[in-house]
Specification:
The structure holds 2 protein chains of 2 kinds.
Chain A (H helix, E strand, L loop, with lengths): L38 H12 L19 H9 L12 H17 L11 E5 L2 H23 L7 E5 L4 H9 L3 E5 L10 H7 L4 E7 L11 H15 L5 E4 L7 H4 L12 E7 L11 E5 L11 E5 L2 E5 L9 H39 L2 E3 L8 E6 L7 H10 L6 E3 L8 E6 L6 H20 L5 H8 L11 H17 L2 E2 L5
Parallel strand pairs in A: 2-3, 2-4, 4-5, 5-6
Antiparallel strand pairs in A: 1-7, 6-7, 8-9, 10-11, 11-13, 12-13
Chain B lengths: L38 H12 L19 H9 L12 H17 L11 E5 L2 H23 L7 E5 L4 H9 L3 E5 L10 H7 L4 E7 L11 H15 L5 E4 L7 H4 L12 E7 L11 E5 L11 E5 L2 E5 L9 H39 L2 E3 L8 E6 L7 H10 L6 E3 L8 E6 L6 H20 L5 H14 L9 H17 L8
Parallel strand pairs in B: 2-3, 2-4, 4-5, 5-6
Antiparallel strand pairs in B: 1-7, 6-7, 8-9, 10-11, 11-13, 12-13
Classes of the chains: A alpha/beta, B alpha/beta.
Chain lengths: 496, 499
């Protein structure tokens, strides 16, 4: 006689995922739960919750790549369990990184001989790359000052106020003073003249941006170089330049090859670029290249001797995945020069489509330039009734994520909306976005203004007399009032 | 009439990948190629070259996870295009990180109220975590010294010589002096007594390791805490402790819950752990947790306000992938306490199987302890004829990657082989490894000693030199010489840094 057993409550694998108890109990958020749960349930629960994240491809503010070919996805998945730092065990992966460094260094016209290896390294992103470059400048400067017998306790770095937040981090964490060149209305990048003026003997370097985060503009690195060469000749300080080409490094060589911004300029000693922006790789890879060996102080490098060849390493992170390095190499050989050029040209054309569509509405000022990163930054011509934050909010209903930002000092009264044209933002999508923006404008026109009501009460107060405000003051007040309203709900302080 | 076209040379998609021209021409290594390549060819070429990399799962020296469940692989692939730092756009992913921080803080017995949020952050690995923790200690110390009107230009940190290289990096890059407690033969971790002696008024913290890289041993954090508390009472310096629990943080709570090493000890102010070691996630995730808000100076934190909730961020990296954070959360809820405990117990058992197999050969000394990270570190009892580097090389023929390392000062004459027992190292594999090691020993026994000939020559030369009298060397001198000669031989070829 065969005794049949009934399924017990505890046989959790029998129940279907959605019928199981795990969909009913809530998962702990503060402590690890005592028991395991089946893997299908764990997978489904997390996947379900993640549905409520934004769609990466509709995040129009981000420069970071959101699509790669399936072949590359395969390579990424295959190498996800390779710890990149084990150079001994994964010699091919290590070599792929070296090839990428050489290829990128040559792309930036580093003064290398035929077959000479470049000085550079792969990082997790431009933040790490910038910190390494800054550290090299700081150490070089300290050594120089020590040799001259001068104090070296107050290093500073000169940048524009438009720098990305990682420069502020570098300054704070590595104890370097940040001397910022302020922006002004209509000029949203670092002014080379003012920058050169701010340089003093404690300046470890001047950082120029190729592809400003806010409006995609390329700073005039050549002009900065020329002014600084003159100043150095007078002072003897030898102040160098670093170019933060996080976005622009993979655009300028293909769209504007005659633009001199890289190692062709003698004072440029290091350059960083984000592989995960226009290098067309998923988030998690950046590159920093030095002009030559002397620009990277030996004392910062840890040496690993691998099968006879010297493998210098200089990174902040140690263990990390190999996937993005391999993906970068894939892109470099898959696309080649013509591939990257085609993609950048496409992005540029789609940016023009979007820009023309916006201009045709007659309601927008275009803040971004045609030459630079393919993006469109725009603000309302008249934001007294409704402003850019409202446009941004309403666009979300259509699925688009288009954040609004205020400019840094001294242009804080200007708010812009920014759309970055990535490889996967097709012309169709550009046209659709224009249509949706037009719909949003129409809808806003029918709504009463939230902000003007607040303002009218203030006008009468000043000593009983009616005091007229200048247009600029009004604009500033509106923006400030709206900012307070929204800041309770939403504020991104660091522009990404 | 239909004209048929033959496939022209330029119709690259028609040719099969292996017959296409791309396999014949070699790719430039220094400059970008002028033309594009079809994606299938690009994929195949890179895939083929990568075949010559080692197999991650056979890399027995690494602590870093090399296998995860397919369900988790699916989640990772789906989130690979999410830039983690866009907190606004990916609120769920951000919240998953916060939940991980809270869970790990509770695992380490952080003194939190019910539903009080912990202070901590996800990083790319323990290197970043340690730099953040060190930065916090340095800033706190500087602020305190300035308030006291004392000089704050010479901070130092006290650690053992067995620390992982990232502490040396931290010291070098952030301009902190590294005061190392030297090891001694038979004692391969930081001696708490000596550590406390080295503490002075410029010490920003003492760093203890839970799970030493070299032999997996847990340092006695409780003793360090007690000694340091006494010294603090006398000096008033308030020197804190940081615990580098890169490996041990996900082991001790499950295998040794009574061991007091975490926030239960009052001087421990921050702890780091690698999610990608025994947190059982692929490479690329670490965690650092602070005891309380006071231990993380406000001035280091950048604030992002998201939908009313304050989101403080304090990391060195900005943009990065979200996959590993999601994978860590998957593991924490999928396994729960019992799952992690089962896995750690299995690892421990397999480590014992390996250890007993090695002991039975009679040829090895076991340098690792039973309590600690599940690994087996062993050295030859007699390495005069053949030594650990040769065993390591010969084992490669069988497919195993088992590197040999020399200990740091002052135990440089000791060489060990290290096998780390990860989740995916089964009992079968352990038994197989033992058999292969026995084969290797037999093989080497049959060979003449390749380098003792070298030593013999130098030996004879040197022995006679000293004033014409024959000078006998002590055993330790001989051993040191042998190791030095071999090291020079291998150094030209092999890695210097221990991972």
């Amino acid at each position: 006689m065969v005794l049949s057993t009934t399924f017990l409550e505890s046989e959790s694998s029998i129940r279907s995922t959605f019928g199981s108890r795990y969909a009913v109990t809530s998962l702990p958020r503060f402590k690890i739960s005592e028991n395991s749960i089946p893997k299908e349930a764990a997978y489904q629960i997390i996947k379900d919750e993640l549905m409520l994240d934004g769609n990466p491809r509709l995040n129009l503010a981000s420069f970071v790549t959101t699509w790669m070919e399936p072949e590359c996805d395969k390579l990424i998945m295959d190498s996800i369990n390779k710890n990149y730092v084990d150079m001994d065990e994964y010699p091919v992966t290590t070599e792929l990184q070296n090839r990428c460094v050489n290829i990128i260094a040559n792309m930036f016209n580093a003064p290398l001989e035929e077959g000479e290896t470049a000085v550079g390294v792969g990082t997790v992103g431009s933040s790490e790359a910038i910190m390494l470059a800054g550290l090299a400048f700081k150490r070089n400067w300290q050594n120089k000052m020590k040799a001259l017998g001068k104090p070296h306790d107050k290093p500073n770095i000169v940048t524009g106020a438009n720098v990305q937040v990682c420069w502020e981090k570098f300054a704070r964490y590595f104890e370097v003073e940040l001397k910022e060149v302020k922006l002004r209305d209509g000029y949203y990048v670092m002014d080379p003249e003012k920058a050169a003026e701010m340089v003093d003997e404690n300046t470890i370097c001047v950082a120029a941006i190729l592809g400003s985060t806010l409006n995609g503009e390329f700073e005039d690195v050549k002009r900065l170089n020329d002014l600084l060469v003159k100043k150095n000749a007078e002072t003897g300080w030898e102040t160098p330049i670093h170019v933060d080409a996080a976005s622009g490094g993979f655009i300028a060589p293909f769209l504007y090859p005659e633009l001199e911004w890289d190692f062709r300029l003698p004072l440029v000693k290091s350059i960083n670029v984000s592989g995960h922006k226009y290098g067309l790789v998923y988030a998690g890879i950046g590159w920093v290249i030095w002009r030559n060996k002397v620009d990277l102080p030996e004392e910062l490098i840890f040496h690993i001797n691998y099968l006879g060849s010297d493998q210098p390493t200089f990174t902040l992170n140690f263990s990390k995945g190999s996937s993005q390095v391999i993906a970068q190499y894939y892109q470099l050989i898959r696309l080649g020069y013509e591939g990257y050029k085609n993609i950048m040209e496409n992005c540029q054309e789609n940016a023009m489509v979007l820009k023309k569509g916006l201009e045709k509405t007659g309601k927008f000022d275009i803040i971004s330039k045609d030459i630079g990163v393919p993006l469109v930054a725009f603000s309302l011509k008249d934001n007294s009734l409704h402003n850019e934050f409202e446009v941004s909010d309403m666009l979300r209903r259509y699925g688009w994520i288009v954040p609004a930002y205020t400019m840094p000092p001294d242009a804080q009264h200007i708010t812009v909306l920014r759309v970055v044209i990535r490889e996967d933002f097709s012309r169709t999508l550009a046209e659709r976005l224009v249509t949706n923006i037009e719909q949003v404008l129409e809808e806003l026109d029918t709504l009463p203004s939230k902000v003007t009501q607040k303002l009218t009460t203030e006008e009468n107060v000043d000593n009983g007399k009616l005091v007229k405000k200048t247009a600029l003051e009004v604009q500033r007040e509106i923006t400030t009032a709206w900012k307070k309203l929204v800041a309770d709900k939403k504020k991104t302080k660091g522009v990404c | 009439m239909v004209l048929s076209k033959t496939a022209s040379e330029s119709d690259v998609s028609v040719h099969s990948t292996f017959a296409s021209r791309y396999v014949r021409t070699s790719f430039p290594r220094f400059k970008m190629p002028e033309n594009s390549t079809p994606k299938e060819a690009a994929y195949q070429i890179i895939n083929d070259e990568l075949m010559l990399d080692g197999n991650p799962r056979l890399n027995l020296a690494s602590f870093v996870t090399t296998w995860m469940e397919p369900e988790c692989d699916k989640l990772m692939m789906a989130s690979i295009n999410k830039n983690y730092v866009d907190m606004d756009e990916y609120p769920v992913t951000t919240e998953l990180q916060n939940r991980c921080v809270n869970m790990i803080a509770h695992l380490f017995n952080a003194p939190l109220e019910e539903s009080e949020t912990a202070v901590g952050v996800g990083t790319v690995g323990s290197s970043e975590a340690i730099m953040l923790a060190g930065l916090a200690f340095k800033r706190r110390w500087q602020n305190r010294r300035r308030a006291e009107g004392k000089p704050c230009d010479k901070p130092n940190i006290v650690t053992g010589a067995n620390v992982q290289v990232c502490w040396e990096k931290f010291a070098n890059y952030f301009e902190v002096e590294l005061k190392e407690v030297k090891l001694s033969e038979g004692y391969y971790v930081m001696d708490p007594v000596q550590a406390v002696e080295l503490v002075d008024e410029n010490t920003i913290c003492v760093a203890a390791i839970l799970g030493s890289t070299l032999n997996g041993e847990f340092e006695d954090v409780k003793l360090l805490n007690d000694l340091l508390m006494e010294k603090n009472k006398q000096t008033g310096w308030d020197t804190p402790i940081h615990v580098d629990a890169a490996s041990g943080g996900f082991i001790a709570p499950f295998l040794y819950p009574e061991l007091e090493w975490d926030f239960r000890l009052p001087l421990v102010k921050s702890i780091n752990v690698s999610g990608h070691k025994y947190g059982l996630v692929y490479a690329g995730i670490g965690w650092v947790v602070w005891r309380s808000k006071e231990d993380l100076p406000e001035e280091l934190i950048f604030h992002i306000n998201y939908l009313g909730a304050d989101q403080p961020t304090f990391t060195l990296n900005f943009s990065k992938g979200s996959s590993q954070v999601i994978a860590q959360y998957y593991q924490l809820i999928r396994l729960g306490f019992e799952g992690y405990r089962n896995i750690m117990e299995n690892c421990q058992e397999n480590a014992m199987v390996l250890k007993e197999g090695l002991v039975k050969t009679g040829r090895f000394n076991i340098v690792s302890k039973d309590n600690g990270v599940p690994l087996v570190a062993f050295s030859l009892k007699d390495n005069s004829r053949h030594n650990e580097f040769e065993i390591s090389d010969t084992l490669k023929r069988f497919g195993w990657i088992v590197p040999a390392y020399t200990m740091p000062a002052n135990a440089q004459h000791i060489t060990v082989l290290r096998v780390v027992i990860r989740e995916d190292f089964s009992r079968t594999l352990a038994e197989r490894l033992v058999l292969d090691i026995i084969k290797v020993i037999n093989y080497l026994d049959a060979l003449p000693s390749s380098f003792s000939a070298k030593v013999k020559n130098t030996d004879e030369l040197e022995v006679k030199v000293k004033n014409g009298t024959v000078v006998k060397k002590t055993d330790i001198e001989t051993q040191r010489e042998i190791t030095d000669v071999w090291k020079k031989f291998v150094m030209a070829r092999k890695a210097k840094v221990i991972c």
